[in-house]
Amino acid sequence: MLNTSFTRLVGCEVPIQLAGMPMIASPQLAAAVSNAGGLGMVGGARLTPEALGQLLDSVSDLTARPFGVNFIMQFHENPACVEVAAAKARVVEFFYAAPRADLVNLAHRGGALVSWQVGSRDEAVAAEQAGCDFIIAQGVEAGGHVRGRIGLLPLLGEVLDAVTCPVVAAGGIGTARAFAAVLAAGAAGARLGTRFVAAAESGAHPQYVEKLLAASAADTVYTEAFSVMWPNAPHRVLRSCVAAAEAVEDEVVGHLTVFGQTIPLLRFSVPAPSRATSGHIEAMAMYAGESVSAVTRVEPAADIVREMVGGAEALLRSSTV
Ligand SMILES: Cc1cc2nc3c(=O)[nH]c(=O)nc-3n(C[C@H](O)[C@H](O)[C@H](O)COP(=O)(O)O)c2cc1C
Question: What residue ranges line ligand 1, CB within 6 angstroms?
Answer without folding.
Answer: 19-22, 24, 43, 45, 70, 72, 95, 117, 138, 141-144, 170-173, 191-194, 197, 272, 287, 289, 291
